[in-house]
Design a protein that fits this description.
alpha/beta; nine-stranded mixed sheet; 23 strands; 25% helix; 26% strand; elongated
């Protein structure tokens, strides 16, 4: 088996690779964007009957990977239990969201708590800027090393003389590598830098985390294959006005993509948010009409959500419907269900619906609490306190079961709800809370509204 050199060409716009240099890229239709890609190709003979390159899967010795626990619990949980040596994580997010802060905290934590040497490569900030941030978040340590500059090869040379246990690259778009003197951030450079980091992590059997910039439409900037090259892709996000930050795995070869990590950006770095439900719910048990509680699910994380509706007499022939946190079409549909199936007139009122705290509810389990809130607002009668509502509502007014009711009820009980209104088809058994099973929306609402009214 010899090394046969085949010249490949890469489009600098979209990263499309071809073996024939054409004027126009067949993938993104840009003109004159192909440049030669200097990459040796190993010829493989698929007809080789000795099968020299393949293994029988069952003969492989597999153990669950040993992990490096960073000590930043929310990050470890989203990663599936910590960093896996030899694996590469790519973390993307809006500028200023806190990627560098999170990774510097993680790097410092590994260096301090595990006493492992960690290399933080910063292509974006100077020594002084990183040092200032490290002192602000109190994460500096004897074992935390910094390389600031954009030459990846210079940075990685340190791995030959010192055994680092973890490397952070901030960011993949700020570095250059190889003989190609392209600008940092071009498709060719981003691809080469990422490949070099992947090879380096595998060769030294250490975990590496690369920070990635995102484009205006929320994708990680660079070639499309960037996300395929790494083992885990994390997304760090947050609403512009809020200090809360969400960390989710988009892809994870070493864990699930269901976990959600929530941090708060404080004056001295990112702090984990332990009581996630408390974020969107202020726990005031005031009896106000138009307010219904539910337990929404973000991945596998249950979050208490408060749906608020306001009904105001309209002066318009077409009453207004305004929604935030629940899709407008769904709100209109649920309003029609209330009108038709519960015989509560809706067309004399403007209706406004809002999910407190800026949460957005896509999960159909929000149908029942939304209906309860709408009916309560229209009747101007508060719902019974301490009750959460969990159900999907169909056009016939039937109430359907929701996913992971067990998780939601457990969280409801933990938060002190005493009653949960659920679908009559729900099979779950749960002792911590009174479960009211209802089959139809008019039954669910007539009973509870009258009950709270008579209280
Ligand atoms: P940064 O980690 O630089 O974001 P990114 O790398 O994603 O671009 O964080 C930037 C913002 O975070 C910055 O506007 C200031 C704020 N911040 C705090 O509020 N507290 C802190 O302790 C730190 C380090 C930053
Ligand atoms: Mg940064």
């Amino acid at each position: 088996m010899g090394n046969v050199k085949i010249t490949k060409y890469i489009c600098s716009e979209c990263g499309h690779i071809t073996t024939t240099k054409t004027g126009k890229c067949p993938s993104c239709n840009s003109w004159g964007t192909f440049t030669a890609l200097d990459e040796p190709k190993t010829e493989n003979n698929p007809k080789n009957l000795n099968l020299p390159n393949v293994k029988i899967i069952s003969s492989l010795d597999v153990k669950p990977p040993e992990r490096i626990i960073t000590g930043i619990d929310e990050l470890d949980r989203v990663l599936g239990g910590g960093l896996v040596p030899g694996s590469v994580v790519l973390i993307g997010g809006q500028p200023g969201i806190g990627k560098s802060t999170l990774l510097l905290q993680a790097a410092g934590s590994v260096a301090r708590k595990l006493n492992f040497p960690v290399l933080y490569i910063s292509g974006e900030e100077s020594d002084a800027q990183v040092a200032l941030r490290a002192s602000r978040i109190k994460t500096a340590s004897e074992k935390l090393y910094l390389y600031s500059g954009s030459n990846l090869e210079d940075a990685l040379k340190n791995l030959e003389s010192n055994k680092f246990s973890f490397i952070v690259l901030d960011s993949v778009q700020a570095m250059t590598t190889g003989s190609d003197s392209g600008w940092p951030g071009t498709v060719t450079q981003v691809r080469a830098v990422a490949q070099r980091v992947v090879d380096c992590a595998r060769e030294h059997n250490i975990p590496a985390v690369m920070i990635g910039h995102i484009t205006k439409d929320g994708k990680i900037a660079g070639p499309m294959m960037l996300e395929h090259m790494v083992d885990t892709v994390l997304n760090f996000s947050g609403e512009g006005y809020s200090s809360y930050r969400m960390l989710r795995a988009v892809k994870n070869r070493y864990g699930s993509t269901e976990e959600l990590g929530i941090f708060e950006m404080c004056g001295d770095g990112l702090k984990p948010v332990e009581d996630k439900s408390g974020l969107y719910w202020n726990r005031d048990d005031v009896s106000v009409s138009g307010v219904a509680m539910t337990i929404a699910l973000e991945g596998n994380t249950p979050l208490a959500a408060e749906i608020q509706t306001l009904a105001a007499r309209t002066i318009f022939p077409y009453p207004r419907r305004t929604s935030r946190g629940i899709e407008l079409n769904r709100f209109q549909l649920l309003t029609a269900v209330i009108d038709r199936r519960c015989s509560i007139a809706t067309n004399n009122h403007d209706l406004y619906i809002n999910v407190a705290g800026g949460l957005s509810l896509q999960d159909p389990s929000a149908d029942l609490p939304a209906c309860a809130a709408i009916a309560s607002a229209l009747k101007n009668i508060p719902l019974q306190g301490g009750t959460c509502w969990l159900g999907e509502v169909g056009l016939a007014g039937e109430i359907r079961p929701v996913t992971r009711i067990d998780l939601r009820l457990k969280e409801a009980a933990r938060l002190g709800f005493h009653t949960a209104v659920v679908s009559s088809k729900e099979q779950v058994k749960f002792n911590g809370i009174k479960i009211v099973r209802v089959s139809h929306i008019d039954r669910a609402l007539s009973g509870l509204i009258t009950q709270s009214y008579s209280n």
